[in-house]
Amino acid sequence: MPAITVPDLTVLERVPAPALGDQPRHVWQVSDAPTGFEGEGFPVRRALAGFDLAHLDPFIMMDQMGEVEYAPGEPKGTPWHPHRGFETVTYMIDGVFDHQDSHGGGGSITNGDTQWMTAGAGILHIETPPEWLVTSGGLFHGIQLWVNLPRDAKLSDPRYQDIRSGEVRLLAGQDAGALVRVIAGSVGGHTGPGSTHTDMTLLHATLEPGARLDLPWERDFNAIAYVLSGQGHAGIDGPALRMGQAALFGGGDYVTLQADEHQDTRSPRLDVIVLGGRPIREPLAWAGPFVMNTKAEVMQAYEDFQRGSFGHIPG
């Protein structure tokens, strides 16, 4: 799992330890991610499907794409499709994905890069493996997160952020046994490069066997940890977690993750996506590629899309 790594974690700034009186967040619920297929048929795990949407706010959904080793000719992507009313965040861990949209955004992402697309008032986009990868086959692994937009930003101008792996803020855990990649938001005053409409934090942590990580967390944010690979525990003396499981935390000042001493040979470390945000607390109407506040707004989005007001597919 390459993403971006550092050979010697002791050279990095450390995540600050919990302060005296800080309260740990305990785990409310653990959920297994069901499997499915997306786009033209690439496999995904619906990482947050087991949780009530009210507890996910401001997030809508997250898919773990892969991890899959494609044979030549097998890599798949998505056809052109519309979005309105939210942001898509595609974080590539292994492999390569190409993106294009109807407003001129796009590019290739690989091994720790992130595409952050604000659909806003409406956009068409496509995500595909490059031709050479289709020909050769290869490893494909990443996540896509949908982040809701507040009512006053749902019809904002579309925007595209290309976040390279070298821009991500890198931190070490308190015992230098964990690498923390801050993509957006901040951890203990250390801020990642992603610019967000909704106050939130998104990070990817890799814990060595036996390592513990305490992450300072905004009290008014929710907190979710999803295991990409490996096995460990969530919370102080909390439940066991393994690949494909997510933990929803309650309130408090910090989130704790612990890697088991013994990992299997295929997943020698515990890799976790941790995310949280300030709830928007607005009505939600979600249908397919449109996330709005009312059913009437969703119907309007379909009409606008059919009229071609989301832009045109580039020639």
From TrEMBL:
<dbReference type="InterPro" id="IPR014710">
    <property type="entry name" value="RmlC-like_jellyroll"/>
</dbReference>
<dbReference type="Pfam" id="PF02678">
    <property type="entry name" value="Pirin"/>
</dbReference>
<protein>
    <submittedName>
        <fullName>Pirin family protein</fullName>
    </submittedName>
</protein>
<keyword id="KW-0479">Metal-binding</keyword>
<feature type="binding site">
    <location>
        <position position="125"/>
    </location>
    <ligand>
        <name>Fe cation</name>
    </ligand>
</feature>
<keyword id="KW-0408">Iron</keyword>
<dbReference type="Pfam" id="PF05726">
    <property type="entry name" value="Pirin_C"/>
</dbReference>
<dbReference type="InterPro" id="IPR003829">
    <property type="entry name" value="Pirin_N_dom"/>
</dbReference>
<dbReference type="InterPro" id="IPR012093">
    <property type="entry name" value="Pirin"/>
</dbReference>
<comment type="similarity">
    <text>Belongs to the pirin family.</text>
</comment>
<dbReference type="InterPro" id="IPR008778">
    <property type="entry name" value="Pirin_C_dom"/>
</dbReference>
<feature type="binding site">
    <location>
        <position position="127"/>
    </location>
    <ligand>
        <name>Fe cation</name>
    </ligand>
</feature>
<feature type="binding site">
    <location>
        <position position="81"/>
    </location>
    <ligand>
        <name>Fe cation</name>
    </ligand>
</feature>
<dbReference type="InterPro" id="IPR011051">
    <property type="entry name" value="RmlC_Cupin_sf"/>
</dbReference>
<feature type="binding site">
    <location>
        <position position="83"/>
    </location>
    <ligand>
        <name>Fe cation</name>
    </ligand>
</feature>
<feature type="domain" description="Pirin C-terminal">
    <location>
        <begin position="203"/>
        <end position="311"/>
    </location>
</feature>
<dbReference type="GO" id="GO:0046872">
    <property type="term" value="F:metal ion binding"/>
</dbReference>
<feature type="domain" description="Pirin N-terminal">
    <location>
        <begin position="43"/>
        <end position="147"/>
    </location>
</feature>
